[in-house]
Structure prediction request, 398 residues.
Amino acid sequence: MRILQVCNKPPYPPKDGGSIAMNMLTHGLIACGNEVSVLAINTPKHFIKEEDIASDYLKKTSYQSIFVDTSIKPLHAILNFFTSESYNISRFYNKEFEKKLVDIITNNQFDIIQLESLWISCYVKSIRANSTAKIILRSHNVEYLLWERLAKNCKSLIKKTYLNFLSKRLKQYEIAMLNKYDGIACITLEDISIFKKDGCSLPMIHIPFGIDIESYQVIKDQIEKDSLFHIGAMDWMPNTTGIKWFLETIWSKILPTHPSIKLYLAGRSMPSWLTNLNVKSVVVEGEVVNSHQFMNSKSIMIVPLKSGGGMRVKIIEGMALGKTIISTTIGAEGIEYEDKKNILIADSVNDFEKAITKCLSDKNYCEEIGLNARALVENKYDNKRICDNLHSFYLSLK
Prediction:
């Protein structure tokens, strides 16, 4: 089959969870014998120069991108109040990108056009008018649910009100679009259930994030004793608010009873309040050159998300590296885990404190959780198996 993958940001180089997820599907679908072309929006937030993209990738995917300024503009945000549009969606619509998309689909015969995320759905009408290809939404999250959770956990009344406004508009749009594709590939089973309740009657398939397990080598002799870590893009609001909650409510309780413990924070776009943080035994690394090496060097991964949605790519990567992971229920959504077997679920300050203390005091227990996590990824999140399923789904739609 000939597949056009349309991305809301550059999928290469795979630097964050979203780009890694897109890139794994690209290569997996190619490995299944498909011809995959990639068109991406190049955003200010994730801007990639073409010279930074490997020539082999460019050749395999016929990669093209168009710069679109998706940044939030106060004036546009205010004017949006007087329209019926979702501001989250309208930021991704661009006439030049639409022209490039139409040019590609009119000059090439595609079987499948795979839209990476809801943000790309604003181009469905143009695709329908210019192509007979099946349109598939690759849903990374139920987006409106993510924004509802952000609003719920926001303490500022003004900000909460605006987030509620955005989530309401987004929900109306997301539900209205549900039956305008030809199929939906959801990253979690929970998302399929929600879409069905919202009225989706399209064929849907569960396509979680997958990895090439052989690329994740567990190296135990580098692990720093009594070390916790968090890794994730800090320009994603759920990560920022989660770490803020952890530092303010949990870290101060753990440190006095475990004076040797250290917390490492890694990820791009660290906000100034974190880069200037002066908290005992907290090391702010910022963006790391080699995420595998960084994770291999630490013992316990924390994912203190209080909002968000979809599936956390970094948890799957941490599991593949045999890490003991302590996460909230929201953080671990979409993963077929067993609490206290291959992950530790902690939704309260007390639960987090108990889980950390147990891991620090019982090294064998901690190691067993990590070993079971690795086994889970090997059995459930192999990228080849996942892409074979997606390939079969696409064949069934022809």
Remarks:
- The mean pLDDT is 94.
- Residues 157-177 form the longest helix (21 residues).
